[in-house]
Design brief:
Structural class: alpha+beta
Helix content: 40-55%
Number of helices: 10
Distance between the termini: 99 Å
Number of strands: 8
Largest sheet: 3 strands, antiparallel
Order of helices and strands: HHHEEEEEEEHHHHEHHH
Strand content: 15-25%
Length: 288
């Protein structure tokens, strides 16, 4: 949302524009005797060259265009579309396209707030909102908007940290769009949208960030593996406690293991021996 100061600046700019191009100056030579004489001569030239002059005097502009007409260097009318009449020799016109246009902001080398050099490019969508101002107030509104977009992009990114540039692209685009819209209103330009296309980091910084991310992932994997081993050891302890309370449970576990081994096609033969039988043999051996 534009601030109160921005709205006041825009209103002042509109008043200045209206006063600059008003047709109330009676001392202008173009509206005096010389101007009327030249206009009479122009009409005389049109009449004596009829009907060939009609091919040069009638002009047509499309619906999405506007014609700004100057007579003897003075603004005659603006916003004409369709077919209109132009007097030869004393009147000239300029066509202004009102459709939305776009341009790419070349990659800008920017030093961020945390002293990191990045290369950022963007795309700007804009249109001509006032055909008269875009012709009378600036020599080349389109080129001026392109140059201003480059400087605005550098100025805004210079106040941001690297992590803010990477994570807050929408906020940066909105801030840049507001700044450009306020600055280009005096040129009859309306900036509709700004988008950050790409942020390129130096190769060394990319490698450092990749190494940091890899180390973080390895540390997280080790923590997860340690937690899994801890949970597994607790589960094994609980299972051993249950089996120690019931000797038959150990025999059932033996049979389950044999079933698992026999399901596979192998030549391994396993003969389970009860631990009690082995312990009895060990005791007899110790007595002998």
């Amino acid at each position: 949302m534009p601030s109160t100061q921005d709205l006041a600046d825009r209103a002042m700019m509109r008043e200045l524009t209206a006063s600059m191009y008003s047709n109330s100056d009676e001392n202008d030579l173009g509206n005096g005797i010389v101007g009327y004489m030249l206009m009479v001569l122009s009409w005389f030239l049109v009449i004596i060259t009829l009907p060939f002059s009609l091919f040069f005097c009638f002009k047509v502009v499309q619906e999405y265009e506007r014609a700004v007409i100057f007579r003897l260097g003075r603004l005659q009318s603006g916003g004409s579309r369709g077919i209109f009449f132009v007097l030869p020799c004393i009147e000239s016109y300029t066509k202004v396209d009102l459709r939305t246009s776009c341009f790419d902001v070349p990659p800008q080398e920017v030093l961020t707030k945390d002293s990191v050099t990045v290369s950022v490019d963007a795309v700007v969508y804009y249109r001509v909102s006032n055909a008269i101002i875009s012709i009378a107030n600036v020599a080349n509104a389109h080129q001026s908007t392109r140059l201003l977009a480059q400087t605005t992009l550098r100025n805004i990114l210079g106040t941001k940290n690297l992590h803010e540039i990477l994570s807050e692209r929408e906020g940066i685009s909105a801030s840049m769009q507001g700044s450009l819209d306020v600055a280009t209103e005096a040129w009859g330009i309306k900036v509709e949208r700004v988008e950050i296309k790409d942020v390129r980091l130096p190769v060394q910084l990319q490698r450092a960030m990749a190494a940091e991310a890899e180390a973080t992932r390895e540390a997280r994997a080790k923590v997860i593996a340690a937690e899994g081993e801890q949970k597994a050891s607790r589960a094994l302890k609980e299972a051993s406690d249950v089996m120690s309370e019931s000797p038959a449970a150990l025999q059932l576990r033996y049979l389950q293991t044999l079933n698992t081994i026999s399901a596979e096609k192998n030549s391994t033969i396993v003969f389970p021996l009860p631990i009690d039988l082995i312990m009895s043999f060990m005791n007899n051996f110790k007595k002998d």
